[in-house]
Amino acid sequence: MNIKKRLGIYKIYKEPHMALESIYKVPYVRGLRVTKNLKYCLDPNLTLDLFEKRVPKIRPIFIYFHGGGFISGDKSKREWMLKHLASNDYSVINVNYGTSINYPYPNQIQNCALALKWVEENAIKYSLDLNNIAIGGDGAGAFLATQLAILNADREYAKKLDCVMSNVNIKGLVLLRGVYDLTRVALKAATIHGKSIMKKIAPKLITALDSEDNEESIMGINEEMFKLLDLTAFVNKKFPSVYISVYDSDSFAYDTSKEFISKLVEHKVTCWKVVGITMKNIFSKLGYDWAQKRRLILKEANEFLLTLFNLKPKQKIHNRYIQYEVDEKELLKY
Question: Distance between CA 10 and CA 250 in Å, rounded?
């Protein structure tokens, strides 16, 4: 058996994203205009990239926020994926927001709200359809995208977080491996690692994690602000359609994803689910082909967006569930 095929593409590289970039990242995508590092706020380090087709036309827009556990990450790591999405008939914006070291909660969501405001103010210049917007992200970016959708429809929620409001229509969300209830992470942060995560995300808000009575002390600091970290509580029947992807063995994300999906079902929100189910048999249907599984997720996300934006007029957004196998060892390489 070919050793490369047996071990899987990701084994050949030191970092998983390098394997993906080797497959997707190309120096040039035909007909694509790339405008990098556009400033959307006063901080010159916070910029966004715009990927759009060269042919002039008002197009739907997909806004993406990278992951990184709130403490790291950069938009450049998602460029390979977003360029390929932009090769379809919608434009894509790739956003850099501040890390929690310099922008602790709620500053990061304020960054995201400013990026959305930039889209509204520059719609004419870049031919963006403000009534046809989807937002998304992976990891921390998925949380921020969901929170942005909530505050965009709820002025009181936005006011509590001191976020600017935009007059745009968010039609859908593309969420990859997100955590949608950080209150659970905080209140059950029994391990040093869990405490460390929350202190880095919100050092001013979560200052009592070392207290003997975590729940009472945390809720006593700023109960109202703390409750805003549970995004599942704000799902309602007007919530945008959702594409969501998660692994069942990704314990940090899977539990809150299940709870989030349950809320979507309860309020009859259209949900397109792609779930990786852990299998111990390494010679399962997709085996160790990690990149092939990522292609599946990318393909389904694109189908969701094309349908959402009515770029496939004969199709309508409907509930959909896709399940695929993933090996236990592979999860460690994700």
Answer: 18
Here the CATH number for the domain that contains residue 111 is 3.40.50.1820
Task: For residue range 244-301, list pLDDT tens digits in order.
Answer: 998 777 777 888 899 999 999 999 999 999 887 765 443 444 444 556 667 788 899 9
281 lies in the same domain as 147 = yes
Q: What does the DSSP assignment read for 161-189?
A: TT-------EEEEEEES---BHHHHHHT-
Where helices occur in the chain by DSSP H, the ranges are 3-7, 16-24, 79-86, 107-121, 123-126, 140-153, 155-160, 182-187, 192-201, 214-227, 251-266, 290-308, 328-331
Distance in angstroms (rounded) separating the CA atoms of residues 249 and 218: 29
Total structural domains in the chain? 2
